[in-house]
Write a structure and sequence with these properties.
Helices cover 59% and strands 13% of the residues. With 108 residues, it is of the alpha+beta class. The two termini are 31 Å apart. The mean pLDDT is 85.
Length: 108
């Protein structure tokens, strides 16, 4: 057990932390449902999401904040309405070869 190597690569630690936060955001069926709806539509309002997901706006706002913090969705405010879109760049990144390279470095 004394052969433990301390984790000192800060860039790797940062990468792991980023993925941890993103996977935590994805580890919820309601948030996955929201992302699925956003993938099907270009832009959707909170009112439409509330109806389609079937939860009160207060709970929906929490899930939207988690997805926003993970950068999976983008928010656009028009007047008093908020509209959400999928952040395709970030979704594509989470499905990218970079993640595979963390676990299969010989394939990169």
């Amino acid at each position: 057990m004394e052969n433990f190597i301390p984790f000192t690569d800060l860039s790797l630690a940062t990468t792991f932390s980023d993925y941890e936060n993103k996977f935590k955001a994805l580890a919820d069926q309601k948030r996955l449902h929201i992302l699925n709806l956003l993938c099907q539509q270009k832009k959707i309002s909170v009112a439409e999401l509330t109806e389609k997901v079937g939860m009160p706006q207060s709970k929906l706002s929490y899930h939207l904040k988690v997805l926003l913090d993970a950068n999976f969705i983008l928010k656009e405010t028009q007047g008093t309405w908020s509209y959400y879109t999928i952040n395709e760049k970030e979704i594509n990144h989470i499905l990218s070869p970079e993640l595979c390279c963390l676990f299969r470095p010989t394939c990169c």
